[in-house]
Amino acid sequence: MIDLHCHILPGIDDGASDLSLSLNMARAAVAQGVTVVACTPHILPGLYHNTGPAIREATGELQRQLDENGIPLLLVTGADVHMAPDFVAGLRSGRLLSIADSRYVLVEPPHHTAPPLLEDFFFNLTVAGYVAILTHPERLSWVPSRYESIKKLVRAGVWMQITSGSFTGAFGRNALYWAQRMLDEGCVHLIASDAHDVERRPPDLGAGYECVAKRVGAEEAQRLVLTRPMAILKDEAPSSLPQPLRMADAERSLPGGMDRSQRPGQKAGQRGQGLGRDPGGETEGDDAAGGLRGFSGRLRRLFR
Q1: CB-hemisphere CA count at 13 Å for 291?
Q2: Fewest beta carbons less than 10 Å away: which of 46, 99, 123, 201?
Q3: Do residues 241 and 231 make contact, with C-beta atoms less than 8 angstroms apart?
Q4: 3-class DSSP assignment, residue 162
Q5: Angle between helix 52-68 and helix 19-31 axes, rounded to 10 deg
Q6: Strand pairing partners for 43?
Q7: 163 forms bridges with which residues in the sheet?
Q8: What does the pLDDT look like over 162-182, one tens digit per residue?
Q9: How far apart are CA 212 and CA 207, in angstroms?
Q10: What's the CA gap between 151 and 237, in Å, rounded?
Q11: How many CA atoms lie less than 13 Å away from 252 in the CB half-sphere?
Q12: What's the domain range around 200?
């Protein structure tokens, strides 16, 4: 799996406080089945004054520490960028970062107040050639009153990233309700851990995957944690990727009696043999995983 939202870099925001915690977060992510993590610290004027060059340097240093400690995790650069008027200019100058220098960029809106000109902001990003990924909409307090705006953004090409812990109930009933509703209505493109530590907000992408697989099936869950994230790292156009699957469509696509979390070709009660792998042959996950191994080598060389 690929986790595209994680506050794993030590000492630069409200995530990992030191290197020891960063290494423990990395170990926890690997234990969940994660092979690639995007380092996405906050960039928030007035509070977290992180910049692209500083994030790149910190990511390279943490990758060296992971390698020295034998932790098999690949890091890529990114940022959890809060909405600001000069957003596009910041991306073009390198002060702000997209994910792995792709067209895809994490955008964090205010938590408690719907920003003015919300749709105009995302329209400007789209016109500039970026694919905006709105982070954890299910946890925003204003979403219930502006849900139609969220759906309109989805129709306009804005991607939605749900926190994996929201599906497990870690953020309460409201976050769980909106996470499930958005998933059911085909408004979720990615899930990510948004991990900050190993206790209160740990890397839990595997747990989120299992919850989603039970609801809409393993194939769609795999797209949320591997297929689309892999495409982002390769900077593939969103038009080349499968659209999110609504729950009603997922139910129609399953053979009668098959559990949503059951892989095609898998007997009832039989456990899977890894993400997206079927006993009877290759799946979309096999292709993505194979591509990831080759791509990982190229990414790793960037830090040397």
Answers
A1: 17
A2: 46
A3: yes
A4: strand
A5: 70
A6: 81
A7: 192
A8: 999 999 999 999 999 999 999
A9: 9
A10: 21
A11: 5
A12: 2-287+294-301
The pLDDT of residue 250: 61
One-letter amino acid identity for 155? R
Residue with token string 């992971």:
66
Number of domains in the chain: 1
What CATH number corresponds to the domain at position 31? 3.20.20.140
CA angle 102, 7, 297 (to 5 degrees): 45
Residue 231 has which token pair? 């495409």
For residue 126, how many other CB atoms are within 10 A of its CB?
15
pLDDT at 246: 85
Q: How far apart are CA 8 and CA 73, in angstroms?
A: 12
- Give pLDDT, residue 288: 47
Which residues, at least 6 apart from 236, have a Cβ–Cβ distance to it below 8 Å?
none
Angle (CA) 92 96 98, round 5°: 85
Residues of the chain with pLDDT under 70: 247-248, 250-304
For the CA atoms of the chain, what is the radius of gyration?
A: 18
CA distance 6 to 62: 13
C-alpha span between 270 and 30 (Å, rounded)? 24
Q: What is the pLDDT of residue 253?
A: 54
